[in-house]
Amino acid sequence: MEKGLSYTSKTIVNRNNTAIAMGSGDLEVFATPALVALMENAAKQAVENYLPEGSTTVGAQIQTSHIKPSALGEEVTATAVLEEVEGRKLTFRLKATDSQGIVGEGTHIRYIVDICRFMSKLK
Question: Among this protein's residues, is 108 annotated catalytic?
């Protein structure tokens, strides 16, 4: 897996992903938990096709700033760029925008895991 892999995930702000709907706030604006999920999705997708068979990635840490609100109907895009690979540890740079500019940015760590081994920990 090489540094520089990237992916951009997109969503439209709707009544289901607002702060009020998600319980993270009182306003009909794009929720921080929805922003985090969009950023994580971009990171997951960036490396998905480069993983060994039977593997996936799981999120372990995210540091993000939600800089400005996004209104209903706005398209929000989140781009993740793979910055560092240390064995199973993957570190991504994140940036989210809407038509008005930067919405959020941060870093995200994911780990490559064997799906069967990972899920066996639930038993």
Answer: no
